[in-house]
Specification:
Elements (H helix, E strand, L loop, with lengths): L22 H13 L11 E6 L1 E5 L5 E6 L2 E2 L5 E2 L1 E6 L15 E3 H4 L8 H19 L5 H12 L11 H4 L3 E6 L10 H9 L9 E4 L6 E4 L42 H15 L5 E4 L2 E7 L5 H11 L9 H19 L12 E10 L2 E11 H15 L11 H5 L11 H13 L5 H14 L4 H20 L19 H19 L8 H4 L1 H6 L1 H16 L6 H7 L4 H12 L11 H24 L1
Parallel strand pairs: 2-8
Antiparallel strand pairs: 1-6, 2-3, 4-5, 7-8, 9-10, 11-12, 12-13, 13-14
Helix pairs in contact: 1-7, 3-4, 9-10, 10-14, 13-14, 13-21, 14-21, 15-18, 15-20, 15-21
């Protein structure tokens, strides 16, 4: 069972939820705003936006001409189905046969599909044919009459003889008349008939208080399917669903256990499907499909959010538009840090909403739900960027997917749940998941290197944890700054610094000719158990330093440091250490890796300055 959080039993009093609170009220509010906008393409009651692959082209006399693709080419050059506003006949339940009007899958339209149940497909076709013949007698429309004539003469066993059968089987199709612009379902007479058709009255309809506003309404028995969630199947899935009696309460069946008015069920599902169909407001985060929207009247916030969440790699040769976008993002985050308005934060108190859904067979699970103001969202993003920033990686705009990729050797092996957990941490300002920094520590030890992004992740995780502990009065340890802090009180950090100095000493003693220093060769052991390795490395360093020049001029010519520089660095660090520990905890290993990274960066910065 997947039931929405706000669900109540019908026999209990129902309290109205705040406008900016639950998932369903927020989606209903979005639908009502879009429906009142004349420029919006969101479906009105009685309609739904569906993905269509092919059109059955007929002559005016109903004979078949061709089956043509109506698919479109996306930005990646791939053919994708076209989204069309079609007539909605209501949700299908179980094995009940319910045809759609002037569109459907081939099982209904042609009486054949790839599901292996020929008798059911024939029954679906008969229902589809009967519906259209009945309506054709009521509506004076040449296109509809051609469709009814075609269906009258069509035999389901003809489907497999079609040249394009392998391509169209199981897909959604519509009808088109040769030589007539548009599709049959777009006819003015047909749309007028559909809009004026009498509402079907259900004798078994249940009237009860709605969980949205507490008012008594006709409750929806079934909620329309949600389509567009990765892994949920082409027929869609449900958020509100009760498939076993053990999940039901007070003798109520199906969605009556989570009472929503019929109009409300239509509105929240239509709004969610609208978001899922919009690639600019839909992002895949691990195994969860995330959508976001805002109450702001300006499109600027959603445009920036799309750029941030999508994590599109920056182009090698950025054009003027790329530069402008980057400047807008940095200006947006700068305003968020300072608490001032920018072009994007013209309505700081407007609501910002983020919903993550993942499939569970024919149902959907809510992986995360966050809603607050635009200003709070911007502030949390700015905090994330600041936490991630480190020397060599300043103001980097990376979100959850890029971070998860750093935890594994192959991005395809990324744990699906981790991206969602990181997203929640960023939006809520909570600690990053332990799995993130622990996995990065392990990867650094395996790869025997610390990249800027991995160092940034470790810094972000360590600092956020320390900052939240300090707010609670649990800890007052010093945070890790963006660049090297030579007097940092953390012993593991100083051990990492020492490893960095010894690494550069060995490389410099060979005039940068070796690919792998003694430190790198024993990197994993040195980070985890310093006492096992550091005494030997310190002894080796005495031999390495002899190959370094004492004269600064010679050192500059050889692009290395002098003996005195390394002696001073080693001495400064050793004075801050009372001993070499036999073992470092995972958290201390993270600090050691940060010290190692920042010490090396300091050398490189000075080398480039010289």
């Amino acid at each position: 069972m997947q039931a929405i959080k706000e669900s109540v039993v019908m026999n209990a009093p129902v309290a109205a939820l705040p406008p900016r609170g639950g998932i369903v009220p927020s989606l209903i509010d979005l639908y009502q705003r879009l429906a009142s906008d004349e420029q919006s393409s969101i479906a009105q009651v009685g309609y739904s936006t569906e993905k269509v692959y092919y059109a059955i082209v007929l002559r005016p006399d109903g004979t078949l001409v061709d089956i043509r693709s109506v698919q479109q080419t996306n930005s990646r050059g791939k053919e994708v189905p076209r989204s069309m506003l079609l007539f909605d006949s209501g949700a299908r339940s179980g094995t009940k046969i319910k045809p759609n009007f002037l569109w459907d899958n081939t099982g209904y339209v042609l009486g054949a599909d790839d599901k292996g149940n020929a008798k059911r497909s024939e029954s679906q076709f008969e229902a589809f044919r009967t519906l259209h013949q009945d309506v054709a007698e009521q509506v004076d429309d040449d296109g509809l009459k051609a469709v009814a004539t075609f269906l009258h003469s069509w035999k389901p066993d003809q489907a497999t003889t079609l040249e394009s059968w392998d391509a169209i089987v199981g897909k959604n199709v519509v009808f088109q008349i040769e030589g007539v612009e548009g599709f049959v379902h777009q006819s003015r007479a047909i749309r007028q008939f559909w809009n004026e058709r009498p509402e079907e009255k259900d004798k078994k309809a249940v009237v009860a208080p709605s969980l949205v506003d507490g008012k008594t309404k006709t409750i929806a028995r079934l909620h329309p399917a949600i389509r567009g969630v990765a892994g949920a199947g082409t027929t869609g899935a449900a958020i509100v669903s009760f498939n076993q009696s053990s999940f039901e309460s007070y003798g109520k069946s199906q969605s009556y256990n989570a009472p929503l008015g019929e109009a409300e069920a239509f509105q929240y599902t239509t709004a969610l499907n609208y978001l899922l169909a919009d690639s600019s407001r839909r992002v895949q985060v691990g195994d969860a499909t995330m959508v976001f929207w805002t109450d702001s009247k300006s499109d600027e916030v959603e445009d920036l959010a799309s750029s941030l969440f999508a994590e599109t790699p920056p182009p090698k040769d950025p054009g003027p538009e790329d530069i402008v976008l980057k400047d807008r993002l940095h200006s947006f985050l700068k305003a968020a840090r300072e608490g001032t308005n920018s072009d994007a934060i013209d309505s700081p108190n407007a609501g910002f909403y983020v919903l993550g859904l993942s499939p569970n067979k024919s149902r959907l699970s809510v992986r995360f739900w966050w809603n607050d103001s635009v200003a709070t969202w911007a502030k949390r993003l700015a905090e994330h960027v600041d936490d991630l920033s480190i020397v060599g990686l300043e103001n980097d705009l990376r979100f959850s997917r890029s971070l998860v990729a750093q935890t594994v050797r192959d991005p395809k092996e990324s744990p699906p749940e981790l991206a969602g957990a990181i997203t929640r941490s960023i939006l809520q300002g909570f600690n990053y998941p332990d799995e993130l920094w622990r996995s990065v520590v392990r990867r650094c030890r395996i790869d025997r290197a610390v990249s800027p992004i991995r160092a940034g992740i470790l810094k972000a995780c360590m600092n956020r944890s320390l900052r939240l502990q300090a707010k609670s009065g649990l800890s007052h340890s010093a945070v890790i700054e963006k660049s090297l802090v030579e007097t940092h009180s953390n012993r593991a950090y100083q051990l990492g610094r020492l490893l960095g100095v010894l690494d550069l000493l060995h490389v410099g003693s060979t005039d940068n000719r070796i690919k792998e220093s003694a430190v790198v060769r024993s990197f994993s052991t040195a980070i985890a158990t310093p006492a096992c390795v550091l005494p030997r490395l310190m002894k080796l360093s005495q031999f390495h330093r002899r190959n370094l020049p004492r004269d600064p001029g010679e050192a500059k010519a050889r692009k290395v440091r002098t003996q005195q520089t390394f002696d001073r660095n080693v001495a400064d660090i050793v004075l801050q250490l009372d001993r070499f520990p036999t073992h470092l905890s995972m958290r201390d290993q993270a600090c050691a890796l940060l010290g190692f990274y920042q010490q090396r960066q300091r050398f490189f910065q000075r080398a480039s300055a010289d």
